[in-house]
Design a protein that fits this description.
The protein is globular and about 50 Å long. Helix 1 packs parallel to helix 10, helix 6 (148-159) packs across helix 7 (179-187) and helix 6 crosses helix 10. It is 39% helix and 16% strand. The protein folds into two domains: 38-122, Rossmann fold (3-Layer(aba) Sandwich), CATH 3.40.50.10860; 148-272, 3-Layer(aba) Sandwich (Rossmann fold), CATH 3.40.50.720. It has helices at residues 18-35, 52-67, 83-95, 114-119, 132-140, 148-159, 179-187, 205-210, 254-257, 271-290, and strands at 14-15, 42-48, 71-77, 101-104, 168-172, 194-198, 214-217, 235-238, 242-244, 247-249, 263-264. The protein is an alpha/beta fold. Bound molecules: NADP nicotinamide-adenine-dinucleotide phosphate. NADP nicotinamide-adenine-dinucleotide phosphate binds at residues 149, 172-175, 177-179, 198-202, 205, 218-221, 224, 239-241, 271-272, 275.
C-alpha cells in the first residue's frame, strides 16, 4: 500500500487507523458478497441479559454486518434464563442452515457456564474463533476461524506493510481470546516472527519489550507500556481497554510511545474496530465454507 497518504502522529509514527482500515475491509467484503451474486449470509448474535456495554457491542456488530452486505439475526434472552434455555437457543442456530456465523456475546450473566454453550458451536460457524475446536484448528493450521482481535492485528500489519519475517515480537497477555492466538498467528510459517509471550509474572518487562520490533499489549492494565519499553521504529498495538474517569484508556501511554515508535494504534480507534471487521470477514468465510 501507499503509506505516503497515511496519517502520522506528531512524533512521526505511522498512525494505524483501525476505523479507516475497518471501513476498507467492510467495503471489500460487501464487494465480495455482491460478486458472489448476493447470497444471504447470516450472522446470528446471542445476548443473555441486559448488560449495557454488551448491547452496544451487539448493535454495532449488526450495523457493520449490514454495511458488509450480511444479514443479522439477534436472539436476546432474559438474564434469568437457565443454562438449558441458553443452550437450546444456540443449538437452534447451530441446526439452522440459514445461519452461517454464531456469536455468543460474553460474558454470560453470573451462574451461567459459557463452556458448554460454546462447545455446541461447530468450528465453521464459530466466527468468534473462541471454542476449543477452533483453537485446536488454529494450532494445527487447519481451516477455521481465528479470534477476531488478533486477526485484526494481522490485517493492520499487512495493511501498513510492516515486515514480520525475522522480526522479534512480544505479546503481553496470555488469554485464549487475544494473547495466545496472537502468538500463534505471529509465529506461523509465512508470517515468521519470533514471538515472546509475556504475562503478569514476566520479570523485567522493559527488557523483554525493548528488543521487540512488534509489541502487542493485551494486558488490560492502563498505561502499562511507556517509551522505555519501545525500541525506536517498533510497531505498537494497543489492545487493552480500561475505563477510567478520563474515558477509555489503553495499555500504551500513547503520547510518549508515539514519539519513539515507527507505527502505533490509537486507543480507541485502533484494534477495536478491526475486531468487528474481522468478525464480518470470518462470517463471509464461514458462508463460503458452508456453501
Ligand atoms: P485477560 O484474560 O484478563 O488477560 C490479561 C492478560 O494480561 C493475562 O495473561 C495477564 O497475565 C496479563 N497481564 C495483566 N497485567 C499484566 C501486567 N501488569 N504485565 C504483564 N502482563 C499482564 O484479558 P483479555 O481477555 O485477554 O483482554 C485483555 C485486554 O484487552 C482487556 O482490557 C480487554 O478489555 C481488552 N480487549 C480488547 C479488545 C479490542 O478489540 N481492542 C478485544 C478483546 C479484549 P496472567 O495470565 O499472568 O494473569
Amino acid at each position: 500500500m501507499n503509506i505516503n497518504d497515511t496519517d502520522r502522529t506528531p512524533g512521526g509514527a505511522i498512525l494505524m487507523d483501525g476505523n479507516k482500515v475497518r471501513d476498507e475491509l467492510i467495503v471489500d467484503i460487501a464487494k465480495r458478497v455482491a460478486a458472489d451474486g448476493s447470497p444471504k449470509i447470516c450472522l446470528a448474535t446471542v445476548l443473555v441479559g441486559d448488560d449495557k456495554p454488551s448491547q452496544v457491542y451487539v448493535r454495532s456488530k449488526q450495523r457493520k454486518a449490514a454495511e458488509a452486505g450480511l444479514e443479522s439475526r439477534h436472539i436476546g434472552l432474559d438474564g434469568a434464563s437457565s443454562q438449558t434455555q441458553v443452550q437450546d437457543a444456540v443449538q437452534e442456530l447451530v441446526d439452522d442452515p440459514a445461519v452461517h456465523g454464531i456469536l455468543v456475546q460474553l460474558p454470560l450473566p453470573d451462574g451461567l457456564d459459557p463452556e458448554p454453550v460454546l462447545d455446541l458451536i461447530p468450528p465453521i460457524k464459530d466466527v468468534d474463533g473462541l471454542t476449543e475446536r477452533s483453537m485446536g484448528r488454529l494450532v494445527r493450521n487447519k481451516p477455521g476461524h481465528a479470534p477476531c482481535t488478533p486477526t485484526g492485528i494481522m490485517r493492520l500489519l499487512e495493511r501498513y506493510d510492516i515486515a514480520t519475517s525475522g522480526s522479534r515480537a512480544v505479546v503481553i497477555g496470555r488469554s485464549t481470546l487475544v494473547g495466545l492466538p496472537q502468538v500463534l498467528l505471529l509465529g506461523r510459517k509465512g508470517v515468521d516472527a519470533t514471538v515472546t509471550l509475556a504475562h503478569s509474572r514476566t520479570a523485567d518487562l522493559v527488557e523483554v519489550c525493548a528488543g521487540a520490533d512488534i509489541i502487542v499489549a493485551a494486558a488490560g492494565t492502563a498505561g502499562l507500556i511507556g517509551a522505555e519499553h519501545v525500541k525506536p521504529g517498533a510497531a505498537v498495538f494497543d489492545v487493552g481497554i480500561s475505563r477510567t474517569e478520563d474515558g477509555i484508556v489503553g495499555d500504551v501511554r500513547f503520547d510518549e510511545v508515539q514519539a519513539v515508535a515507527g507505527a502505533i494504534t490509537p486507543m480507541p480507534g485502533g484494534t477495536g474496530p478491526m475486531t468487528i471487521a474481522c468478525l464480518m470477514e470470518n462470517t463471509y468465510n464461514a458462508a463460503r465454507m458452508l456453501a
